[in-house]
Each structure stands twice: as C-alpha cells, then as structure tokens.
Amino acid sequence: MVAKEPTAPAGALLELRDLLRRLIVEADTNNTRLAVDIGFPRQQVSRAVNGRQVPSKDLANALDSELGADRRIIALRERAHRERKARNIGAVLATNGTVQPVAEPQTLPATTVDKSMVEVSPTDANRRDTFRAAGAFALGALADDLSRRINDADPDPGDIDDAEAEIRTFAARYLVTPHADKLAALAPEWNATEAVLDRRVSPKVRGRLTQVAGWQAFYLGLIAFDLGDDRTARKMLRLAKRHADEVADLLPPHSGRRADVLLLEGSVAAIQSSVAYFTGAYGEAADIAAQARPGAHPFTRPILAGCEARAAAIARPDDAEIALADIQEHVWDGPVLPGPNPGNAAFAHSFLAVSLANAGQGVQAEEHARTGLVLEQASGADHFVQIAGSYNALGRAYLRRPKPEPEAAVAAIQKALTIVDGRPTRGVIQRAGEMWQQMDTQWPDLSPVQDLGEQVRYSRLALGAGQPAPESA
Which ranges of 380-446 would DSSP assign to H, the alpha helix? Predict the structure, then answer.
C-alpha cells in the first residue's frame, strides 16, 4: 500500500537501487530474509530494492542499519525523495541534485515567490501587476503540488483491495493458525498500514485504510490476549476502537460500510469483555458486553451475549438469564467474518455450558458441553482453541454437579491441555489451572489431580510471554 513510482528508476533512485542490490549480495541475504530481519513487509522491501519506490524514512533507516551502509542509503533516499517532488512540480534537477525551476518569464517555484525570477518593468504599476500575477501563479502551483502529493500518497486501489481481502483471509485462518505465526504475519502489515495513514491520503482512501488498520489492531489485540499479554491487548483494542470511531465519522450517513464498522465495534467489545473476565473483573466484563449487545452486528450479537452471560453468572446471577436467552435466539449460521470466534451453534452450547457451570448448574452444563464439543469437532478438527475450550467446559461441568466427579474432570482438562500443547493459549491454560487448584484443595491425595498439577505447571511455562496465569483461583 504505497504510492506509485516511475517504472524505470533514474537519478538517485537508480543509484539507491544499485547500492541496495550490491549490499544485499555482500550480506549474503535476500529480500525475504531482509524483510523478516527488519520487520517490514516483503513487498515494501522488494519495491525499494527494485527501484520501484522511494522507501519511507523508517524503511531507509532500517535498511541502512541492517546492511551497514553508513547512512548512504539514507542520503540517497533523501535525494530520491527530492527528485520525485521536483518531477511533480515540473522542475528539473541540476547535476548536484538541487532543484532548478524551468526558466520561463514570470515562472515561480511551487512554494516561493522569487524576485530574481520575475521580469519587472521600471514602473511601479507594472511591478505591482507583475507580482500580483506571480503570486497568483505561485498559489496555483501550490494547489497543483498539493493535489499531486495527495495523489502520490494514495496507495494503488488494487493494494487496498488486497489489504481488505487479507483481513478476510486472516479471519478464516485464525482458528487454525498458531498464535506466533499470526503475530509474525500481521505485525509488519499493521505497521505498514499505519505508515501510509501518516501520509496525506485522500478522504475516501483514508476511510478504507483506517478500517483495515482497525481490523489489524483488533487481531493484534486478540493475539496478545490469547498469549496472556493483557497490557498490549488493551492498548491494541483501544486503538482498534478509535479507528472504528474515525471510520464512522468519515462515512456518509447511509453508507453500506457502516455495517463493517458495527462489526468491528462489537468485536472489540467482546475481547475487551474477555480481558476483563480472565483478569477476574467479572462485573466489568458483564457491563462491557451488555452495553454493546443491543443493536450489535448479527455476527457479534451471540458472542457478546455469551461474554455477558458467563461473567454475569458469577457477578450478578439474576442478570445472566437474559443473556443466556439472547445467545440461543441469535445463533449465527452464516460464514466466518472478521471478528472473534463465530457465534454459531458450537459456540452457543459451549458458552451455555460455561455460564451454567459458573451458576452452579453442572448437570445442565454437561449436556451443553458435550453437544458443543461434538459440533466443534465436526466443524473443524483443527480448531484447537475452541475444542480445548469445550473440553475445559466439560471439566467445569463435572466439578459443578451436586456430586462432583474430579477424576472425570481431570480427564477432560488433560485433553484440553494436550490439544494446546505446542500452541499455548492463555484462556485454556488459565481455566485449567483454576480448576486444578480447586481440586488440589478438595482432593489433594488423588493421583490424577497430582498429575494434572504437573501438566498445568508445564503449560504455564510454555505460555511464556505475557501475563502469567494467577497462582490462586
């Protein structure tokens, strides 16, 4: 998502291309490895190396540092940038790289009124008329230059189409992709999108790119949450909400894109509620979801109801019934859209199980947990987080029965932890740890409980980065 450049590089851009190619060979690397090392999208690095684009300042600084260019890349980038601006205002370049205006009577540079370039007659009246004309010409040139800069700042429309399509692809692959892989793929793309938004892009393009950046920030927040880094999750989710608000302000009142904004807003609220829930702020978690649920996008409506129900069952049980009914009335049966886990039938049963178990209704919770598990396995055997969560829900149901079954609970929880082994996920590991701590208090001598404790400790270590699971329930 970058401005278009001439197909044949010339001047400083050509010199920069040749320097980059030489340094890459000397460093025994390639565009792909270089992009990974400096944290920029491969396409952006490739455009710079092939002379199709004047790199941004950030990219030039990163390349200069990584390739040990001793500021040569930075200097050539500045020259190439000046040359591009000169072309845009109809100027030519002298051999020293400075901009020289085209020599015509009363022709001015785009941003200044230079007396030495204006043919002035001896009379004051003519002099005033000449400067008025020259000033008007300079303002017109400024307007032309601004228009060109805005046009140059806009990414190619095809790049924006691709970015929007990548969000949909990312959503479809989220359930089956390890968190570290998702983070490595998305973080550079988000950084590149924000860099384009820092430029003076046109309003229509700004609206579309801000929506893309909002979704990228949302998914980065979701990944941070899944990895247990609540601080980063909160920051990214706040940024995603800010982007959603900005898009709403940019859109016409009856734009069809307002549904996309509603989808992003509901998705952000669902994960904000989840962050609060998994940090023990159950009342706050219920409030966030409850405020966003009425009028939510149909995709996020059942998700928000589920988030509200599981938190309300702990914080204020009398309010949980309304949310439980809302889950069942608004089950999503459409395709996967950008956002959290789809609020489909498998989701509904799993969240009903969690909510009922939280309310102490273990027998009813077990029925929903088993149904949700079967549906989740049928919809995608590689939905590792969702299937593991369903096993945890089943384990919780065994513990919340009138006569708890700790051994059956251990078996279900161990399956959950085994599923996320190698793909550690905070929600699964934290809930498993909380249930083990409960069992270790009540049945410390049971060998299955002791075995589960070892597995929980190993899983907590594997989770590694981010906020650790709590040491007490």
Answer: 384-399, 406-419, 426-442
